[in-house]
Amino acid sequence: MMPAMARRLTVSLGLGFAAFAFAAGASAAPRYVDRGITGQRYVFAGDVGLGLVHSRIGNNDAVGAGLNLEGSFAVSHSVELGVRTGARFGTQSQLRQADQYGRTLWTETWGTGNGAPFANPEIRVRWAAYSGRVVEVGLDWRMYVPGEAGTSFGLGFGAPLAFHVGDILRIDTGIYIPVVFDNPASTVISAPAYFWFQASPHVWLGPMIGVRHVNPPGPSRDDILLGFGIGYQVASAVDLKWMFLMPRVNDDNRAFGVGFGVQFRIGE
Fold this sequence. Notes:
Blueprint: H1 4-23, E1 44-57, E2 60-74, E3 79-88, H2 91-96, E4 122-131, E5 135-144, E6 154-165, E7 169-180, E8 186-200, E9 203-215, E10 221-235, E11 238-246, E12 256-266
Antiparallel strand pairs: 1-2, 1-12, 2-3, 3-4, 4-5, 5-6, 6-7, 7-8, 8-9, 9-10, 10-11, 11-12
């Protein structure tokens, strides 16, 4: 059972999310399913998200909270640069990497540890190699900077794909391969898939799934991820986002978390 303080925080954030969503008037900016895999040229996007995670080990329940902090800038119509880190509040948050649950509507966070109040910085470059009306193909490169004690330098390589199905569905998928140069190196092959249905001109929602083959310094494993996300465009340059996530449904601990986030864009 989640402690009372965490429950109150979750309810308060949820009510605030709903009130803001219904009170604010959205403009006629592009719908989510019509957006590209990179941002618009010369637009800065900032993301701030609160993540709450719950896990159970034996008969003990533990809850952690953290913040996701992220920014990106599109230097052209097809190239986007970004940086990301996270803040964790307390030992339980650090152990469970609670900041990752605040990275709303995105499940691929690698190269971080679990023993520091701030997550390793992640620097990224994304190139939209092909942008068609139905299919988009990109290349994604990431660097994990080892600021946390006991962590190592890492690189991530990805091939993001987006499928625009009619005017109601967008499927974001692809292959992502992070490599962290531990001794020996740890690698992951991850294939997420997000199914976004445009429920109204300003609301999108849908399931988030993923399969991962993880090769840490030790026995390899296969993980299955399940989640659900909702987004609300409250203004031309502001989105509110909510996410429920179970990153390893096949794990005995059955950890799960929720995230509440906001994205604001400058220059759009």
